[in-house]
Structure formats: structure tokens, C-alpha cells
Amino acid sequence: MKNIYSRRDFVRSGAVVATGFAAASDVFALAQERPSADEALPIRLGIASYTFRNFNRAQMIGFMKQLNVLALNAKDVKDHLPTDPQQEAAAVADYAAAGIKLHAGGTIYFPKDEDEDIRKKFEYCKRAGISVIVAGDPAPETLPRIEKFVKEYDIRFAIHNHGPEDKLWHSPLDVLKTVKNMDPRMGCCIDVGHTARAGTDVVQAIREAGPRLFNVHMKDLTNSQSKESQVAVGDGSMPVRKIFEALIAMRYQGFVDLEYEIHPDDPMPGVISSFAYMRGVLAGLGYARQG
Length: 291
What we know:
Blueprint: H1 7-12, H2 24-33, E1 44-48, H3 57-67, E2 71-74, H4 85-97, E3 101-109, H5 115-128, E4 132-136, H6 143-153, E5 156-160, H7 172-179, E6 186-191, H8 192-197, H9 202-209, E7 213-218, E8 220-221, E9 230-231, H10 240-249, E10 255-258, H11 268-284
Parallel strand pairs: 1-2, 1-10, 2-3, 3-4, 4-5, 5-6, 6-7, 7-10
Antiparallel strand pairs: 8-9
Helix pairs in contact: 2-11, 5-6, 9-10
């Protein structure tokens, strides 16, 4: 069933939306006229660097400037945020020069229940000034050890759910059950697409996560049971308006990061369309951008 805040409603409300690849250039022209940050919005929009996994850092920075998006969830893919300290420092300097803020790192995997391996990951994020680790598939038995590093480094640890295929964390609710009695900096990154595919109500999961929700990965699906049905945000059935309303109601302090996993060789049309839609939803809720 189509999202109640559909692209048809969006256009009727007077917002400009990309209706396909042919319209992407029009949306891009609009984005250039807007300010570089969504400072007036109650939800901070960012992007996961995995979206641009087939492009190098310089190209990605160029894309982000075009999008007027300055918040990045960086991953060690291509040269986006290398684990080598010297190369990482060069990347951090490039982002700072471009006015881009690294707010999260991931997805980062923790396959070993060993201090040395875990410390390397926390040091990696500390060097980059990252305050949230988006973690993929840490085993439950490793979490007490990881919790010690969360306390030492004061970095929040957000376990990312990966849907039905995930042997450990199908849904954010699985994460919440495990970390409920741990340090408050132990929490979750809700991937809305994987959450829907796990049969979990995304909006309810956000409400239940509350202060333990540290990051959101945004995407859209035309079929809530099919990973392959991903489309630009607003073209599927994801209840984006209700998601934003829930986040605003709970005074969510993290970022909503677009993770656009399709068309890796040409992601920008869908990415532009997705940001136009999300900003349009927020405008429809009465939150206009400054400028």
C-alpha cells in the first residue's frame, strides 16, 4: 500500500519533487538555491558514505556539496575513511576543509571478543572525532567487553539491525532486549528498510528505542518483504511522514542518514530525489529550511 504522504500529495502541496531521472536536474537546481545546512529543521539529515561506495572521497565530497548535505556517516570503503592513521588523518582534513562533519562511523564489524581488536575500532573513531559507532553483527557475548570501551571513550555504540537474514539482530527490538540493562550509550541504529522486512513496525520500534536510538538509516521499499525492491525515498511504501513525526515527538538528537544502496554507479538521481522528498515532508509538517 502506498505511503499516505505520496509523491502525488507532495506535488499537490506545491513542493518540487523529482519524478524520475529526467527531473533530477530540476531538483538539483533547486537544491543549489537553498542553504548548505538544514539548520531550521528538527531532524538532521545526513548520508551514509556506502551510498557512494563506487566513488572516491573527492567525488563524494563533490556530490555532498551538490546536495547541500554536510553530515556524513563514513565507512572504510574506497578511501572514504581508511583505517590507516595517516590516511585517515588526510581524509578527516579533506572533510573539514569541505565543511563536512563526521558524526558516525560504520557499519563497523566486531568479530572478535578481544580488547586489542575492539580498541582499534574505538581509536579509529576517536581519531576522526566520531561520536557514534554503527556496529554490524556484534555477538551478544562480546557486548559486556564493548561496554567497557564505550565508557572509556564516551562513544555511543549503535547496533545495526540487518533484517531477516541477520542471524543475531533481525529487528531493533532484538537489540533493545539485549542492551536494556547496559550503559545508556549502548543502543541501536534503526535501518528502516531492514526493520520493515523483519516484520517490525518501524514507527513503533522508534518509539520503543527512545533515548537508545543513536542513528537512523533511511531507505524506501515498494515491497516490505523484498530487499531488492528498494527505490528512492518517497517512491515506496515507507511511512516517512510518520517516522519523522515520531522522531520529532521524542526530540531525537541523532541523524537520519540516507543509505541508498541501488544504482551504485549512478546514485545521484535517486539521492537527489530522496533528499527533495524528505525535505518536502518536513516542510509539509511546518518546518521550513532557513535561507
